[in-house]
Amino acid sequence: MHEKERHRIILSAVQDRPVVTVQELVALTDSSEATIRRDIAQLHVQKKLRRVRGGAESIHPPQFVGLAGRPFSVNETINIAQKRAIAQKAVELCEDGDAIIINGGTTTFQMVHPLATKRCQVFTNSFPIAEHLLKNSKNTIMLSGGVIYREQNIILSPFDNDVTRNFYAKRMFMGAQGLGPLGLMEADPLLIQAEQKLIGQADELVVLADSSKFSARSSLILCPLERISTVITDDGIPDSAANMLEQADIHLIVAETSAAQTKATSNG
Amino acid sequence: MHEKERHRIILSAVQDRPVVTVQELVALTDSSEATIRRDIAQLHVQKKLRRVRGGAESIHPPQFVGLAGRPFSVNETINIAQKRAIAQKAVELCEDGDAIIINGGTTTFQMVHPLATKRCQVFTNSFPIAEHLLKNSKNTIMLSGGVIYREQNIILSPFDNDVTRNFYAKRMFMGAQGLGPLGLMEADPLLIQAEQKLIGQADELVVLADSSKFSARSSLILCPLERISTVITDDGIPDSAANMLEQADIHLIVAETSAAQTKATSNG
DNA sequence: TCAAAAACGATCAATATCAATCATATTGCG
DNA sequence: CGCAATATGATTGATATTGATCGTTTTTGA
Question: What DSSP assignment string belongs to A76-123?
């Protein structure tokens, strides 16, 4: 077996599993320990893997380093204040007993905190949302079935899901990649398919989009503006976008993120 | 077993329960106390867990202990050694790439630890099993859709679930309330309905039942003995039960528990 | 309080892994 | 064909890890 061939096998083995032993690679490549060690040493200086006693491990974090459970550690902290304020407004629309659909996403995930005190029937395709609500609230949780995609933490099914078809909700909450005159934009075709199914199961569609989403564009249109009942955004929304929504007869809710909450909030 | 591998298992075990004993980890990793102590000490200085007398505890706050969400805090520790040994044997039947169904339960939950090093396609109706495997393994996880029942931590759907119908597995693993001449017994009619659906989706039915289950009885029969391919139990199984299974042409696997390996009892 | 049991830490032998060296095989070239 | 260069495999001494033992400390229970 050629050197390159072994390297290919070693790298693929290391990427599969968090750690591969020299012995396993010996068996896998049918070569000697000495050769495998030499290979590992080479790949180590090439930074293709990390050499450890007994074998080699992937150079990438073995997935639970920080103890997985942080749903979307990367995106979650972007515009977190706006997302939280928006999510708060979204939950304020919900009353105990309501049946709602929450589509997975970093903004909608922020709804879990204010939702903790509610008792709604929540249908979601997001594993982290279901997990959090299950552990920290008394809401009834319904989950869509299918494969759990780790990257998005979303559950997708290639098949029609009767659970989805039989659940009908007052409102569906969802985020988006972008929001423009053409409608709601999304990047991933797979997500679009799943989300379109869900949209059909709710009376009102409530879109949670921080103000940066009005300038963001994506190539795929999820649904036209007419389908949207309500948009919740933050006070950074440009006038043009507000006008656009007004003309489309969309109810606009602006969540105030600054300390200046002097506006039309009537509290008791 | 290698250092990294053990660390993986230890961290994954610590995540399950607020505290894990050295003995449990010895059983789980099949290594010595000294090694486990050294590992715990290492992970402690790495701040991956906290070292305490008797074992290790999660570094994260207990959070929701009283609330629903902790998988099976009550049942989980009953016959834990037997359940673990049984689960270990069950996982030994699985090879990378296998499609398997794991029905929710306290015994089947113990499969998550040995499964951490596998790469199977796992279909389950158990939220905790899905959660753990999602966070601590590279298995592909498929979840059935429906309402999450907090009491059992099981996902049930009143409707037919196409995800379920379209997933066909080599083996299905399940626990039971009881196992007698009439077949597999279960207590809850709702569970029976869901489990019967799943049973139809697998070639072989593997039942995980610690030896106490042979004396336990329940009012409802889930399926007859003929449907069962394999039973995995511990070495406390009475001869009468072993004979019953043998006559039903069921493959019997006996997992030896460390406690029962001492044959002579000095005092009665 | 004391005694028994469990858990711990240190030490040492057994084992596994490693690095270095040498031997062998294959290839390329004169 | 002979020879050198390279790659691979085998051997050996060095090093690291593991498991067992033993004495000490902590916990448990009377």
Answer: GGTTHHHHHHHHHHHHHT--TT-EEEE--SHHHHTTHHHHTT---EEE
